[in-house]
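--- STAGE predict ---
source: upstream dedup step, 1 unique chain passed
mode: sequence only
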Amino acid sequence: MPTSSPVLLFDIDGTLLQSHGVGRRSVNAALTDLAGETFDFSDISFSGKTDPQIFGEILDAAAERGLPVDRSHTDAFLSLYADRMHANLPEATVEDLPGAVSLVRRLAAEGAEMGMLTGNLEPLAYRKIERIDLSAAELPFGAFGSDHADRNTLPVIAAQRASKRFGREVAHEELVIIGDTPRDIACARAVGAVAVAVATGYYSADDLREADLVLDTLEGFSLDRL
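--- STAGE serialize ---
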């Protein structure tokens, strides 16, 4: 558990909000933009992965099916996806998950040090939380899929940014990574951070039992439980 003031890092999809498939629809459209056609990639899980990791896996599968793409097209694919998401998000159904918004607002009012740790590209991360009426004022920094494809590297980046923002050296052990997948737990374990898991995504509380704290929803979270 953290030895001093913890720095809370929230995942987005499945943790703070549910966007009801707008990401997959936008990926599908972006792949069509890139390759001239698409394919059924429903067997590729997005949960807990960074966007660059997901897109690399889709490009590998597309190439195996004979589409004229490979991993060298990752940046172009991500750019097309971002364009599609910016166009689609305003009309998409995006819902906050139980306790998420009230928790972030309460912690912000209490002066908690908070940010995000998510596989989303940074601009899209902020667009998503805006849809549930959260803002950069409440989650002012983070580490994102646009920073690195390997989620286990993101806590290191987050600690560096937290240190700069809060004017003190933030140790990895002070990070509290809050997410809804085993990959969130794994990235916390990779640096000795605290793992808080919430069963509001695709995984059950039992699936997430390796976390330091497992919650049914964020309604059950408080700093004194760390």
